[in-house]
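Lecture 7 notes: from sequence to structure.
We start with the chain below.
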Amino acid sequence: MKKRLCLFLATLLCLHSLVLLPVTAATVNQGVVIEDVVVDANYPDKYATWKDQYQLVYGYRIPGMVVTQNNTILVAWEVRANVYEDEGDNDIMIRRSTDGGTNFETVFRVGMNDAECFTNPTMIVGDDGRIHLLYMKDTGKQGVYYTYSDNDGAKDSWSQPVDISGAFQRAKLGWNMVNFGPGHGICLKNGENAGRLIVPMWCCINKIYYVYTLYSDDNGVTWQMSERVEGLYNETMIAELSDGGVMLNARQGGDVKNRHLSFSSTGINAWSEVRADTDLPDPGCQGSMISTTINGQHAILFVNCADQKDRTNLTVRCSLDDGKTWVSETVKIDGACGYSDIAVGSNGTVYVLYESNLFSEKAFGMLLYKFDLNTAFGNSTDKPAAFKGDGTEESPFLLEHMGDLNTLQNATDSYKTQHFKLCFDPDFGFDESKWNKNFVGIIDGNGHTVKNLTLDLFKNNQNESILSNATYQNMPFALQNYYQEGTTGADFSVRFVAELLCEPSVLSGIGFKYVITNEGRTEEYTANCSYVYRQLMADGELQSPKNGKYFLAHGIKDIPVATLVSFTVTPFIVTNSGKWVYGTETKVSFINRQANSLVVGSGDCNYQPWSSIFPEA
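Predicted structure tokens for the same chain:
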């Protein structure tokens, strides 16, 4: 992708003093200049584009920034021999500030050789304090490099760069360009995937751009590409949601004049349908965002050129509800502007590094602006939204990630008549430990697939489904069990059957959990099954497995005559990883046993006649 704004930095003899600017006041050219008198002593004229009244002019572009656990500010950017060239003689520079951005140490290059193209520096602060840095050589065509520092990003502390381009599947995808962000990546802090490193990335295939994330679950040792985010393209930024999921916020380009969003509970798959955010105008330019905390509440800050025509009006917005709405307060930073990145210190100071008009229309610079987070947004009276949408059939509430489903499950019955639309494929991962009651509302599945669900959470109190236009995938059990009664007295007096929907190869154990009540005595026990039936007979008809379905069966002998016996039956599986997962609990009670049949008193367990036999027993 061609970055349409070309910016320049005039060499100054000293740093401008930083000014703490009032919130919501539009300001221009008030920030620390991130530059050095001589960028590289060996090549003092390497980055010159022309000389005029502003002396030697440098080409500085593509900012990236993080604040370390020690509150050190690390800024990175491209310095270009020709500022107009995205793929020219570009180097990556880093500077550090240990005093809140008032002063910066000498600039240094990371892992570069002369006359080569290095682009889009992207840093991540790991949960152990390690600083991870990724960048491209020749927009990925000559390699993708990873290095790290365990000393707060100090000049001589970076590891030898490692080429990780094998993770980018070039042979399979056929891309001719790949790049990060640009900006920064994140290390997830919450949820099941805490510690995962994630970087937004995009690649160009036949002049079409596709968005993915690159992630590592082993602290940067290995990296993998996520599933593709359908409908997003171009430069993309990432932030963590309150429940450990992520939001992607993308520049769409062309005539699209708003930011576009997609959500995922993992940051690597099950991406939600992309939607335009009409509250975030954009002229077709990179933007940035970051998660933080305001008054103990999770918040997301977003910065971009908030204009639908020109790269101007650099503005920071805040969301207190995972990007559903943005509060009315804003921080306006600068007029003429370009790419930017944002970071937050532990003391609540927000830093914005951005490309900006410094002296005139011809000479541009890279500036650092800061403001106080709580002063800007801590007094917001905007009420966070539970869901995006109106709840009507015409404008339903949107369910965009697992956190929205959790909100809906924990909601009151006031949502029973409200309309919802599912915008992603929810994956319950064979784990409903945190899902303890059915959802409420009227949910349009919108053609999506519900994966790995063991309990029927989408039914109301009348056992009616609230979810339509959706399919289920890889549920371990059918949602209903059934029983067979004995008529010959041989083998079993009653046999319970469950339909297994997942492949037996992923299991190390199967069976039933029983609670049996007889004459006031209650007995609980677990019965392991040693056999999975691939077909059965029901009413004399052979029932073959459908779509990988299989059957479990277990029987109870000697049902007492003329007595009330009640069964509560729950099938279970044990995965190869040792995880126990239970199916639907069903009940049946027998008033007494006659010579050739059982008399049913009550229950929700379906009946199949004894003539249903299992030929593969």
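Points to note: Residues 397-473 form one domain. The two ends are 63 Å apart (CA to CA).
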